[in-house]
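Model it.
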Amino acid sequence: DGNDSLLVGVGHHNVPSYLRKRFSMGGNYVSFFYAFDPRPPFELVARSGLFCLGFASVSDEGISNPLSILTRNNPLEQHNNTFDCPIISFVSTIVEKADDPSSVVIGYGINDCTARLVEVSKTEIGSLLSSDANTVH
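Modeled.
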């Protein structure tokens, strides 16, 4: 019908960590975007590399949830690198921003402890997507 729009979702990937063996805990959760055709058979057309979503900013910590500051004690560590994001960031919602159709609001949990909302432009998400499934951002 000439409409070239796509739908976008967020997937999760459990990256095993050394904690799993030492403490019988789960691994680290990271995310990826995927884009698919909105018409059957809903063909997957692109995906991003793996990424993690950040901690609450210092100005946000403790305002609505006093446990927010505690999530910084558990940063993501992989292959001897420490990242400025939690070991678990699990996206639970992605919706178009009501007053700005060029952005989405992403809701996610941090270390199964607190929740956060972030606004992301659709252009930024589009720049992360690739039709090459092996691309990592």
